[in-house]
Input
Amino acid sequence: MTIEFFENTETKERVLLISVDTGEFDAEVSVEELRELVRTAGAETEAVIIQKRPKPDSVTYIGSGKLEEARLLCESEEIDVVICDGELSPTQGRCLEKLLKTRVIDRTVLILDIFAKNARSGEGKLQVELAQLKYSLPRLSGQGTALSRLGGGIGTRGPGETKLESDKRHIRRRIHTLEENLKELSKRRERHRERRKKDGIITAAIVGYTNAGKSTLLNTLTDADVLAENKLFATLDPTARAIKLPDGSEVMLIDTVGFISRLPHFLVEAFKSTLEEATNADILIILADASDSECEAQLQVTKEILRELGGENKPMITVYNKCDKANSFLLPVTRNTVKISALKGIGINSLLECIAENMPQTKKRVLLLLPFTEGSLANEIRTSSRILREEYKADGLFLDAVVDVDIMYKILDYIVKEEDICQDT
Ligand SMILES: Nc1nc2c(ncn2[C@@H]2O[C@H](COP(=O)(O)OP(=O)(O)OP(=O)(O)O)[C@@H](O)[C@H]2O)c(=O)[nH]1
Ligand SMILES: [Mg+2]
Output
């Protein structure tokens, strides 16, 4: 029998965490992160069991001794939900629920639960529902699953009205509809990006591990007023705001969903349209929490996910944040690395200068000698570019002009000299 619990704002759900330490990653660090996820989900970690084994037991996840320890803890600590720090197979999930007589979920379900709680936009909600269905589909076997019991406790929250049904066909149909809807929204985003590009708007995405301070930075630089709090995955939907750089040029900053280690692939897939907003930006501002002992590991995770999303070839700026409470002397000092405190507004000018240095070249200054036969091209240059000097010479029309890089291919044959210039020239 499975006990159902319903959300109650006064009594927090009591959680037992179970981890199998295979040596593949630092189990202690991972459990600490899981604790934070539990806190973010509104529950309380009462006990932790870590077992060293080469791999999880294929049926019971942990060995029989530890299982008995867990069963006793569930009773004595009045545990409401057991959370395993890995991905549970359907068999393991069912078996543990039966033996522990408690709801059992895994790290992925917990993350999905937080996503469900924090999704605000229609697109965000569709993405969460898609991820939940993709997770639950292989786990439906006639019996209920953790996800199909939409109650109110952690791991059971749904994105909206839709109740998950144990009808695979229905779920597959729903997955298809969601994917179609999301594809439409993704196309709309793409059209929007194309328009921005045409208008010459440069974009910079603030990416990084969850809780690094991305939203705080956006709020400090603009009056975006987005939610920033000490919780994981506070932001799910992208927000964009324009800022002016010290050299007068403008850049559109984008704040988006944070990353976490061992992010399941299907979750990245479900959030593709949101994540593309970040990876399609002209510049990537990679924010890291310098006060976290796992700072460098979190930077690596961020870079790996960016690589997976195809964003590794963009200009990148590494920003060590929260330097007000970190020993920033030990941090690397390299080109395109900045130390800041988004909260206290420290180092912001250096960051803005670094963004300015990384702005893509959109204009070039060229000296041209156009043959007299290219009269219409000369007119096109006159209307689209800034002409600094124009002179009729014996062998053609001489132009000193600042042209848009988009028309370079038309004038390549007539260039006498070219040089890169800043955006606002
Ligand atoms: N001490 C200190 N705290 C900071 C700084 N920047 C952000 N924080 C705090 O870190 C926590 C997380 O900040 P957010 O801006 O919500 O982080 P985020 O990266 O947007 O997080 P998610 O959207 O949840 O992925 C908040 O409690 C902030 O007040 C900083 O420079 N110094
Ligand atoms: Mg945020």
Notes: The longest strand covers residues 44-52. Residues 1-6, 142-150 have pLDDT under 50 and may be disordered.
